[in-house]
Input
Amino acid sequence: FHIFQLHNIFSTTSIDENAFVAFVSQIRKGYVKENPYHNDLHAADVLQMCHYILTVGGVQKSMKLNQLDVAALLLSAIVHDYKHPGVTNGFLQNSSNVIAIAYNDKAVLESYHISETLSLIHI
Output
């Protein structure tokens, strides 16, 4: 939340702060605690690194990113591994897992993460 405030996301976009907090709370619940890597701490780490690259690294300025661009990047950092099952695309494909079948063995986890995220906001 604080990183989004530092980037003035709420004051320059139509993102409602309360709705955002509720959304992020749901995302956090979707990260599997038992997953040793792809968990909520990993999402927070990726978010922090994106913030660092944007600011200290100068990417926001050099790429002339607007607030919507920054919001999209920071949000994608939070959700990029949402509901990660802890196995690879290859494992899901080779085991004929229902997730792999649903996405026709193409970008299985990537499709799964964004699909599950979008289902939270009913898109």
DSSP finds nine helices and no strands in the chain. The mean pLDDT is 96.
